[in-house]
Amino acid sequence: MPSEPSPDLAHLLSHAERRLARRLAALLAEEGCSLEQWRVLSLTADGRGHPMTEIADHALMPAPSLTKLVDRMVADNLVHRRPDPTDRRRVLLHLSARGRILHDRAAHRVATEQARLLTTIDDDGTLAGALSRLTAALSQGAAAQPKVTDGQPAS
């Protein structure tokens, strides 16, 4: 009898991420917030102000798309830009009072749904830790991989 093929980790993670993203997008839409907006709000909610490069990384968006999203969020008075006090050439994004209200409402809904999902799979708090370690290992692995040019390792 043939053995079961081992699960394809990339496929399982992609499938779970897509389903979770759809579920969160529907939940956030009830608050008038997109998943991308939520990612910006959730990072800027710490009150420290963040540069666009950091926000793009957190929001999983290319810089030009993020700029358009942030422009809309500024127009909707959810966030505002301020010069970085330590480097006036940089701009930091901060949550506005209206953005704080939206964040708090949405955060409650997201946390409730996350707790429900984790309870459903009997997670004892290890899933997030395992995913964080996997992300770190992949980041380190990418840095340790030799660059390949035209099918040949770069010298």
Q: Can you give a write-up of this model?
A:
- The model has no long low-confidence stretch (mean pLDDT 89).
- The protein starts with 8 loop residues before the first helix and ends with a strand.
- The protein has a domain at 23-123: Arc Repressor Mutant, subunit A (Orthogonal Bundle).
- It is built from six helices and five strands.
- The chain has helices at residues 9-29, 35-44, 52-59, 63-75, 97-120, 126-144, and strands spanning 50-51, 79-83, 91-95, 148-149, 152-153.
- The protein is mostly helical and 155 residues long.
- It is 61% helix and 10% strand.
- Residues 6-143 form the HTH marR-type domain.
- One of its GO terms (molecular function) is DNA-binding transcription factor activity.
- This is MarR family transcriptional regulator.
